Amino acid sequence: LVSLASMAYAQQPQAATGKRLIDILDPQSQATQNMQGLLWTAGIFSFLVLIVTGGALWWVVQKYKTRPGTRPTKPGDSNEPAQFHGNNVLEMFLIGVPVLIVSVLSIYTAKALADVTAKPSNVAETIQVNGWQFWWDFDYEKQGFRNSNELVIPAGQPVELKVSGKDVIHSFGVANLGGRRDAIPGQTNKLIINAAKPGIYYGQCFELCGASHANMLFRVIALPQAEYNDWVSKAKAFQAPTPSDPQLAQGLKVFQANCSGCHAVKGLQGGAPSFPDLSYFGSHTTYAAGIFRNVDNNSELSKEKGDRAVKINGQERVVTLEDWIRNSAQVKPGSLMPAFDGSMHEVKNAETGKWEEVPYTKLSDDDINAVAAYLRSLKLEGVNFKAIPEI
Ligand code: CUA
């Protein structure tokens, strides 16, 4: 009970509304309702056992403790308590009741487990989930597109996730949609999730995986079926536009020169599956694996709204997309994206085998602002997840 309470009420990231975002006591799917029922039943049984056994112990101690003048001095004297050996009725009771409780809980557990893991015949979507240090990739294999760090699903429909790790072991979990699956390299673990109602749900990595394990978040965005279908068709059809605005055109050039070696954007050359897909970056609610809010204008950011502030060059301030691009490791420890601020880093010389200090590429503020503006402009028309309520 203590661990249950501490899990539920440990300090968690909070929404602007002050509501706890990751709350195991707030079931939002059939699976979590099943688990919740089991949790409370087991909890109540445990509490009853605690009361009965604790009460009996207290009663025995009070009744039979020695008092002045009642200690027997030798066997058989008048103060010696009644001596007896065994009590069949009491022993049957002591064995029977625990067996009964354990049997009821076992049957209930087996049933809940079967319900939670059963694969329904009407799976609406199958999505490959890949855990990377320190972000999540959602590959809509059948649809032919990826959507990194935000898992968009149809609400009220069973969705099958095929969870795997790509470097070290991670663990995929959304507390109020239920279930958790380890993301293990070379292995696929399946999980069915079904969000009862449309909304934004919070997930995170549940397996210590390195410096930014705690920053390996993601969001599940459950949409009504028609909106989901609309999103899928738009994501499928998306092709990066050729911007006419001079700043965006500059941003595209900077992106192609510095970013597209790793990051895919549909319609542009380059990119690899081992780096986040940025195709519809502007339609995402967050970036950097769910830790920073993605806004059209930096003036929308504030600490009061829950946006993260980090010490940058010795001064604490709310992190912007431009800060992230300039030096991601400064705002997210262990981030593997190279910096673009000309700072030094160590590289192993292939010939000598020695580590050498080498500067990162330095982009001008102008170029950084342009590439940020370009990324924000990559939107799916008519898609606005920012208005969806947080659950
Ligand atoms: Cu990935 Cu913890």
From TrEMBL:
Localisation: Membrane
GO molecular function: copper ion binding; cytochrome-c oxidase activity; heme binding; oxidoreductase activity
GO cellular component: membrane
Domain Cytochrome c: 246-379
Keyword Zinc-finger appears in the UniProt entry: no
A Pfam family reported for this protein in Swiss-Prot or TrEMBL: COX2
Highest taxon of the lineage: Bacteria
Transmembrane portions of the chain: 38-61, 89-110
Domain Cytochrome oxidase subunit II copper A binding: 122-234
Chain's role: Subunits I and II form the functional core of the enzyme complex. Electrons originating in cytochrome c are transferred via heme a and Cu(A) to the binuclear center formed by heme a3 and Cu(B).
UniProt-recorded name of the protein: cytochrome-c oxidase
Organism, scientific name: Deinococcus cellulosilyticus (strain DSM 18568 / NBRC 106333 / KACC 11606 / 5516J-15)
